[in-house]
Amino acid sequence: MSIRLDHWILLGVWVLSFLLLFFIPRDKRRLALIAYLFKQSITYLLGLVAVEYGFLEYPVRELAKVNRTSFTYEYMAYPVICAVFNAYYPVESSRLRKFLYYAAFCTALTIPEVLLERYTELVRYIHWHWWTTWLSLLVTFFATRSFCVLFFKNISRYTKETKSP
After folding, report:
1. Which domain holds residue 77?
2. C-alpha distances in angstroms, 73 versus 12, 36, 91, 115, 159?
3. Which whole-number Å values give the CA distances from 149 to 35, 104, 116, 152, in the listed order?
4. How many domains does the chain have?
5. Average of per-residue pLDDT across 9-19
6. Where does the source fall among the domains of life (predicted)?
7. Mean pLDDT, the chain, as a whole number?
8. 3-state SS string for 122-147
9. What's the pLDDT at 3?
10. What b/e readout covers 95-131, taking b as 16+ CB neighbours within 10 angstroms?
11. What is the mean pLDDT of residues 117-134?
């Protein structure tokens, strides 16, 4: 795939990420913002570790002289999707439904990454596999959700807990 097309894909991801922000309900915007910022901090650290230790690389990327990770993925797309994940999280559902919610988001992010790895120069697996992506997504989604629950522990619309008197 040509480098030019890779850049168009990156632009498309930015546009799609901005559009997703419009689907966050007004009453969940604070939750989404906290999830977005927390996810950025996680992906910044883990992305740097993964690249520096040679697990994967991003041959075509933005800010190539500044950072070896994918700015689009680590700082925009993944955090935005995590914000949406938390805004629509099924708080009152069963554990099975919650796990399926996690699994759906992890799978929905892993499949495009595998396709990008196979057909573009946007990501290249070195010592990485699709299941590594899936598990790392699961762990970081869980960490972000846990942080949001703790951050908003007294606000019942975000968690099952009610306000303390």
Report:
1. 3-151
2. 12, 13, 27, 15, 28
3. 10, 20, 33, 5
4. 1
5. 93
6. Bacteria
7. 88
8. CCEECCCCHHHHHHHHHHHHHHHHHH
9. 61
10. eeeeeebbeebbeebbeebeebbeebbbbebeebeee
11. 93
Q: What is the CA radius of gyration of the chain?
A: 17
Proportion of the chain above pLDDT 90, given as a percent: 68
Quick check: 160 pLDDT over 60? Answer: no
Mean per-residue pLDDT, 65-85: 88
Amino acid code (one letter) for 59: P
165: in domain: no
Q: Which residues contact 108 (CB under 8 A, 6 or more apart)?
A: none
Q: Is residue 163 part of a domain?
A: no
Within-domain flag for 158: no
